[in-house]
């Protein structure tokens, strides 16, 4: 039975909508991991500052843009100074001013993402991936009123994109493969492989295309090549049916991802059903700038959202067969969040009121604010479907692999994310009467199984 209350969704939730176990593995899941990450980073910062007084070229350019005297009021540097005041707390003792932030960025933008191995309270090693290090240092800063003003400003996002593009260029170099090792802290160490193979993803060499499986780094020439690795066809066989009519009605998972939520009866201008977050087809689809009147085709329809962790496969596959009606990338924000009062009472990882993780709790709002890819697919049986790839924080690059007018089969690649974790949505029109598979919605209780990991190309739903 549906929940009572103002929400229109008929689904019950196994967890609160703002809750993801370990915050989708974007954030270290223990204080020991946080301490280890910042301890290592701060040590590198101290060593670098003792040897060099200048910033890396990309960070120096970022600093000049933020300090631009022609910047309109309130100036970006003034807002940054307010951010550090508002974020000042026992939780934020490392990055307390803009110059300190710059020196930490100096280290990150010339290093690949790493894998840390701190000790728990009993002295046992615990492996923790750090796929999005810039996000971790921006995490507390983002959850402030001043950051809400600054991080949504177009000028800030332009200069932030320039900085991220510089890091992206580094992540395509051979030097960026240096964390693809089997030593402690390497992605192919025992703990690193355990994280990459978690959630029943499968043994790495049997799941992904490896240029040279016998090499420690599996033959990946760069971090980006490792991150955007292709998956083996027999590791993720596409679900199908012997009956062509039934087969045409099947929708498969477009991404390897973790269930975040489902809502029925979405509206052109709407409000999310928790925490007052806006859920607007009009804004999510870029005010129809590219879609014409396409947003109206989804009024009264269904939205399915799922979240990719840094360890997931980051290419997108078509959930249905059909014609690409539109395929565009919409520029947006990178680190903007809806400031909140912190983690909720039922948060499985953080103490109530903890300021960490606001960007994950802003997942729903980010579907209309963050950089995103919009791919509209017209299917004769299911109707118009829109895949929305939401690029978040470092994951600012949404790379399209299809073009308007192209015919795609269910399984064909639509595009990919680069450099971290991300989220995606599938929008369906009201004519698509969807029955979600039992792995996603409990057939007896109607509960959405939030936090369930779903493999790409596995059965998602069937339209009738």
Automatic annotation (TrEMBL):
Boundaries of every L-tryptophan decarboxylase PsiD-like domain copy: 57-195
Domain of life: Eukaryota
Pfam family, one: PSDC
A GO-annotated cellular component: mitochondrion
Keywords: Decarboxylase, Lyase
Keyword flag Hydrolase: no
Keyword Transcription: no
Official protein name in the record: Phosphatidylserine decarboxylase
């Amino acid at each position: 039975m549906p929940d009572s209350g103002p929400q229109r969704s008929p689904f019950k939730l196994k967890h609160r909508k703002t809750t993801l176990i370990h915050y989708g593995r974007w954030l270290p899941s223990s204080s020991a991991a946080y301490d280890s990450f910042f301890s290592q980073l701060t040590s590198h910062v101290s060593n670098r500052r003792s040897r060099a007084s200048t910033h890396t070229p990309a960070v120096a350019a970022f600093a000049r843009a933020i300090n631009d005297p022609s910047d309109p009021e309130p100036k970006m540097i003034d807002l940054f100074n307010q951010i550090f005041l508002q974020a000042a707390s026992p939780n934020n003792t490392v990055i307390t001013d803009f110059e300190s932030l710059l020196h930490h960025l100096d280290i990150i933008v010339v290093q690949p993402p790493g894998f840390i191995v701190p000790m728990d309270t009993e002295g046992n090693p615990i492996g923790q991936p750090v796929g999005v290090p810039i996000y971790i240092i921006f995490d507390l800063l983002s959850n402030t009123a001043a950051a809400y003003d600054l991080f949504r400003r177009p000028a800030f996002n332009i200069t932030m994109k320039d900085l991220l593009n510089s890091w992206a260029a580094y992540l395509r170099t051979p030097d960026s493969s240096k964390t693809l090792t089997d030593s402690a802290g390497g992605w192919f160490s025992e703990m690193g492989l355990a994280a990459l193979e978690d959630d029943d993803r499968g043994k790495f060499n049997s799941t992904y295309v490896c240029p040279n499986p016998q090499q420690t780094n599996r033959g990946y020439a760069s971090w980006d090549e490792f991150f955007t690795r292709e998956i083996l066809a027999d590791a993720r066989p596409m679900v199908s049916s012997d009956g062509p009519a039934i087969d045409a009605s099947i929708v498969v998972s477009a991404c390897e991802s973790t269930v975040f939520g489902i809502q029925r009866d979405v509206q052109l201008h709407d409000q999310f059903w928790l925490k007052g977050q806006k859920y607007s087809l009009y804004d999510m689809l870029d005010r129809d700038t590219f879609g014409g009147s396409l947003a109206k085709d989804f009024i009264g329809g269904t939205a399915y959202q799922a979240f990719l962790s840094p360890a997931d496969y980051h290419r997108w596959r078509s959930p249905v067969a059909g014609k690409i009606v539109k395929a565009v990338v919409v520029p947006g924000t990178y680190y903007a969040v809806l400031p909140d009062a912190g983690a909720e009472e039922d948060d499985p990882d953080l103490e109530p009121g903890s300021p960490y993780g606001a960007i994950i709790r802003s997942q729903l709002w980010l579907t209309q604010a963050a950089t995103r890819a919009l791919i509209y697919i017209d299917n004769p049986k299911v109707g118009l479907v829109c895949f929305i790839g939401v690029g978040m924080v470092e994951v600012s690059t949404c790379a399209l692999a299809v073009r308007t007018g192209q015919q795609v089969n269910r399984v064909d690649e639509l595009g990919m994310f680069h450099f971290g974790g991300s989220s995606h949505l599938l929008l369906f029109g009201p004519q698509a009467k969807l029955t979600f598979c039992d792995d996603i919605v409990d057939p007896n209780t109607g509960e959405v199984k939030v936090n369930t990991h779903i493999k790409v190309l596995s059965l998602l739903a069937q339209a009738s």
